[in-house]
Amino acid sequence: MAERHVTLYNILVVVASTVASILLGYQTGSVAYTLGQVSWYNQMGLAMSPTQPGYSHTVTITSAVTGAYYAFGFLGSIAIGPFMNIFGRISAFRFALFWHIAGSVIGAGAMNQAMYIVHRCLIGFASGNSLCIGPVYLSEIAPPLSRGAMAGMHAFGQNFGFCLGAWIGYSTSFASTSTTFGFRFPLAVPLIFGLVALGLTFWMPESPRWLTVKGRKADALNVLTRLHQAPGDTTNEYARKEAHEIMAQIAIDEAALKGRSEYAVLLTDKVHRKQLLFAILVVAGAMNTGVLVISNYSVIIYTSLGNSTSVSLLLNAVWLTLATVWNLVGAIFADNLRRRRGLVIGYAGAFICLILFTALTAKFTQTGGRSYAIGSVFFNFLFELFYGAFIDPQVWVLAGELFPTHLRTKGGSIAIAGFFVLNVVWTEAAPTAFVNIGWRYYILFVCLTGLQGLLIYFFLPETANVPLEELEELFGGRVAIHMDEIDVAATGNIENTGDTYDKNLEQGHVGSKSHEYTHAEDAGSD
């Protein structure tokens, strides 16, 4: 078995980063259990039942609070790309956490609809930041053979946050409706995670890739050594090989920019445009399964199937608990299962489950038969197994690994901005669609999920177990050198490495023999 070069320190850094992912998941899911709280409707002056006067205004407000989150998430994802490049990954974490904390303070103290919408805007912006930072940071601190498991913790953290929020929301639903504790306490909990995550950023190391870009080569090597030094490796050979490969690739990548902006390169260069399209397909396209419509409106969906509000909140909490388990399992086995294979299995299973969920929901609507409602709930839960274990972990791993270092933050932010655009479209339309066309809304997600699976099966290359600096070859790009070609003894002082590659680049000597990474098995054995 190949050496994975995972240290306890590396694992602890991943755990620390995952705290921010938990906060992100909690914030994203907060609308589901807030919309299930009677005290929230009372405080906001909104009708809770379709039979009550003014319910049309409630539909408008619920659409607004959901849409505001994703609209500002779009802005946050676009803004954080340049920020990460300029100030670094750790400063980006702190920037996002500031907005998470500010938004949570306003949400917990919301007295009216306007304050709650402002809360949703701020945590949406923060979540757009966080959604981009996690995959980039985790992919840049992980060794190749464990990158799937480590970057997959971003998905696990999100689902753990979803799950925690659901159980807290369910528990507080039993609070007296004459008080506002039922919805205020859950909205205050993110303050704990925000402050803990903020404190951890003062211990977490900066990305060695960003340090290299900024010319801090010795610092980059020190971080790589702490993260990946094998037991008994007194010469730091593996870390030094990583450092040399990173420096060499960054040298030719930056030279290839030729004074153009990263956005221009992403849109005009054939190789990088292909990477961008794949990123949008995988990251944004995952939302075409309707997973966030199901999770955000789960209480409303379960209630429409004849369940009480309390039972619906409980089902939502159980669904998210299982999603967290599936995510953890999926992340652990992400590197063995590989990216493309995992996604194909996930989309095939999700497609079948959505068909049966839609059909049974339609039958329940027409007949009111309890067995159809039970069947709908069952296939909704089975859908989450395929999405949580096979799709979700791979999506966020690919979000951080598809692009080279100089384009990673901005390319990833564009793909995640697409994620938010689709969520605005699907979640904004959901309340009105549920009222006007009901179960037929799910037919759209059935068709898109099938199409998504086919596109991934036929076109997505396998990226598992390949060093980040060598992924360019999969898309027809140029690689400076492969790690197995590096002779540490012959490369000299790490401080001079970048200068050496710059000179070779000017003379046209930087390049490497091609490795054929057409299958994950080949990549893993290299």
From TrEMBL:
Gene3D superfamilies linked: MFS general substrate transporter like domains
Key words of the record: Membrane, Transmembrane, Transmembrane helix, Transport
Residue ranges occupied by any Major facilitator superfamily (MFS) profile domain in the UniProt entry: 13-464
Organism placement in taxonomy: Eukaryota, Fungi, Dikarya, Ascomycota, Pezizomycotina
GO-annotated cellular components: membrane
Transmembrane segments: 12-35, 55-80, 92-111, 150-170, 182-204, 276-301, 313-334, 341-360, 372-390, 411-429, 441-460
Entry's Gene Ontology molecular function annotations: carbohydrate:proton symporter activity
Compartment(s) where it occurs, according to its Swiss-Prot or TrEMBL record: Membrane
Name assigned to this protein: Major facilitator superfamily (MFS) profile domain-containing protein
Subcellular location, principal: membrane
Stretches the record annotates as Disordered: 499-526
Bilayer disposition of the protein: Multi-pass membrane protein
Record's compositionally biased regions (Basic and acidic residues): 513-526
Family per record: Belongs to the major facilitator superfamily. Sugar transporter (TC 2.A.1.1) family.
Record InterPro entries: MFS_dom, MFS_sugar_transport-like, MFS_Sugar_Transporters, MFS_trans_sf, Sugar/inositol_transpt, Sugar_transporter_CS
